[in-house]
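FAQ: What does the model actually see?

It sees only this:
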Amino acid sequence: MRTATYFFIFLNLSLALFEEPAVYPLPFLATSVLEVLCLLVFLGRLTHFAKVTLHNVFWKDTKNICIMVAILLSLTDLAIYGILRLYDVRSIRWSRIVRPIFLINFAESRQIRRAFRSIRNTLPEITYVFLLFMFSLLMFSLMALKLFGERNLQTAEGLPYFRNYLEIVFDLYVLVTTANSPDVMMPAFDFSSWYALFFIAFVIVNTYIFMSLFLAVVYNNYKKHLKVMPGGACD
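And it is asked to produce this:
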């Protein structure tokens, strides 16, 4: 039963590769039949679980409610999508986002739920570090606007350079990952090599200090919640 459950969960999640827009497109009928088969297996697994569980215990378990709601939403979305296709109306499968619920909420996924709850409990405790990082990012973006906004600089593509605050925030956010380095600073560097100090300071503060601090806080809090969580709490 456990192997079959995992197989159909994996199959259900893998359908995203074959549904429009798809990496390897398959006919709608083929993917819909596979999805209905998976949902029937999940419903049968849930029915079997209900047969061996006390009635009041079964209906008080939020995992079972989540699975039933996910099955209902998936079937409803599949029916609506199929009807719209008959009338050549373009739509999207919004129920894809509920598919991970099956991976998390079945009884066999105890360790996954434990990790998921540890992540959920960690999020509030890293909020302060994240807000501090965002404040630093916004302040550096404001400094960049004041430094470069009135210089009438242009990028290599001939576009205005650092004149829109929101675009500056996005460019510097990407710079935290160093994905656009050193391209993002070249127009300012060509104007004056001293402007490189601004980007060096930004990378030191946000990439090497804040990202290391953020990673340390996430790791320590996650490990703490994983240790203190009793074995029965994940059920």
